[in-house]
Amino acid sequence: MINWKIISKILGSLLFIEAFFMALCLVMTIIYGETDMLLFIFSTAVTAAGASLFRYLGYGAENSLSRRDAYVVVTLTWTVFSIFGMLPFLIQGTNITDAFFETMSGFTTTGATIYDDVESLSHGLLFWRSLMQWIGGLGIVFFTVALLPSLVGGSVKVFAAEATGPMRSKMHPRLSTSAKWIWSIYLLLTVACGISFWVCGMDWFDATNYSMTTTATGGFSTHNGSVFLASPTIEYLSILFQFLAGINFTMLYLIFFKFRIGTLVRNSEFKLYVLTVVVATLFIMYMLITRMGYDVEEALRSALFQVVSTITTTGLSNTDAGLWPHFTWAILGLLMFMGACAGSTTGGFKSIRMLMLIRVLRNEFHRILHPNAVLPVRVGDQTIPQQRLVTLLAFFTLYMFMLIFTIVVMVVSGIDFTNSVTIGLSLMSNVGAGLDTNIGPQMSWADLSDGLKWLCSFLMLVGRLEIIAVLVLFTRGFWRRN
């Protein structure tokens, strides 16, 4: 049976945290003397009241979670957070479909927006959009494990249900201690990014917002469109911080706090990540120079920015890639699918899974020549158990099924095939930007029908929680009594 009392207790504690962040947006409206203070006062009050209700329903719950409880907690947390998180947009006048779409896009760090004119939004709402992505960057529940380690006894199960990637690595025997270190790195990256932007000429508000959406690899912008309005220096800085956010945060911990640079250099996933970025950048750079007449520096900066932004599923851009040669779209589409490293703030299939698939395929070719050979799948110094390979195959199958389903629905709805493919990849990988000029880097998703927007919201959640954690709730066996 599902332990609804402990689930309610956890949801209540999480909603208090959300109410606190809403109050920070209230401070922003006061600083700028804007008229929507009541908007955030009401939203904060309602969220706090909801938190109190959930805490009351969970009063006296034992701090013990089963694996089923953990999957329910994770999916409900992201859904409930989005329901309460859309209140500021609803009160501001946005309809419920668009408000939920925008909020789910924020928390899942997808970065797709329904606002054609984000510059018309108040500073408080712009700050709330960026905060949503920053909160969701490493995971809402993971954030709770760091702040409230004593909340549940099954925090490891919750982390396993929310964390990205097929392999787990520990920095410390206590998960709560590891979570604190990882969040410290996340905060350090955000602060360093913001200060760098500000020093190089951004005003403090834009620097703060872009630092949160860059390190969260979310892509929400404080200006119309997602084209990065900045100098070349700031664009190179953005490339750097997006790239760092795409590295496994356990590896970043070993570099920043243990000074084990060799660990990163020897990491197979990191090497594939770097190799992919270099090869894709050089190829697109060549295409821009020979086909579009770019000079070398502009081609390097444009190609590198777009490649890093796409593989880290950030969705920012420093140019309109929809105008590039069509073959570059195929490269960027593959990068959308692949994603960066597991254990980072990025979406996508993840480089580690891609590496595992490559090793499996290589072994199959060897097995054709040597049928009796024992060929374990190894990644670095680890031998991958057979069960993880089965899970990998299941994940890949589900990902492709969901992608094809999305493409078919979009085509049937009247969207052209190119946009249907890129929309599907954007949603399943939490990129948030299409490649064609119909839904491209400089436009919003507002033209989609309400039905498609609800489907998109669901797909964002499925992509962020890596499919299985959500779809398992729709199986009959999950709800059976044991």
Explain briefly what this protein structure is.
The protein has 482 residues and is mostly helical.
Describe this protein's structure.
By secondary structure, the chain is mainly alpha-helical. 65% of the residues lie in helices and 1% in strands. The chain is built from 21 helices and 2 strands. A two-stranded antiparallel ribbon has the order 1-2. Strand 1 and strand 2 (382-383) form a beta hairpin. The protein is globular. The model is unreliable at 169-174 (pLDDT under 50).
Count, helices? 21
Structural shape:
globular
The averaged pLDDT comes out at 85
As a whole number of angstroms, the C-alpha radius of gyration is: 22 Å
Strands in their spatial order, largest beta sheet:
1-2
- Helix content range: 55-70%
Gap between N and C termini: 7 Å
What is the string of SSEs from the N terminus onward?
HHHHHHHHHHHHHHHHHEEHHHH
**Main pleated-sheet profile:** 2 strands, antiparallel
Strand content: under 5%
Low-confidence stretches: 169-174
- Report the count of strand segments: 2
Protein structure class: mainly alpha
